[in-house]
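> call design_seq(struct)
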């Protein structure tokens, strides 16, 4: 057996062994243990009164409503500015298109005049 073929055999053997180990690990059922929490958790009655909690909820709700209102206002402002900008661009485009049509007509007239001039010069 050559060095190259022994390397291939070794690789195949290693692959077979690792596959067998993986299959055994999948089939074998192991017990899952959860480590205890590093911070002890205790239920405490009366830590926060119901009144305090409800006041906190109301304040939190008010803050969120204020944020949502500000976000909506910013969206409206941005949308309005974008729509105004688009309207301005459309007006500019329409004006440019009109100008191009006028220039096209003038170019046709100039072309016709140049053709007449060329014909007049070719007769001389």
């Amino acid at each position: 057996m050559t060095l190259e073929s022994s390397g291939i055999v070794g690789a195949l053997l290693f692959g077979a062994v690792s596959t067998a180990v993986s299959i055994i690990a999948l089939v074998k059922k192991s017990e899952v243990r959860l480590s205890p929490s590093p911070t002890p958790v205790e239920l405490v009655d009366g830590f926060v009164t119901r009144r305090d909690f409800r006041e906190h909820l109301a304040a939190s709700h008010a803050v969120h409503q204020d944020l949502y209102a500000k976000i909506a206002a910013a969206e409206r402002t941005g949308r309005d500015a974008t729509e105004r900008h688009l309207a301005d661009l459309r007006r500019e485009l329409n004006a440019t298109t009109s100008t191009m049509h006028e220039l096209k007509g003038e170019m046709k007239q100039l072309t016709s005049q140049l053709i007449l001039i060329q014909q007049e010069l070719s007769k001389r």
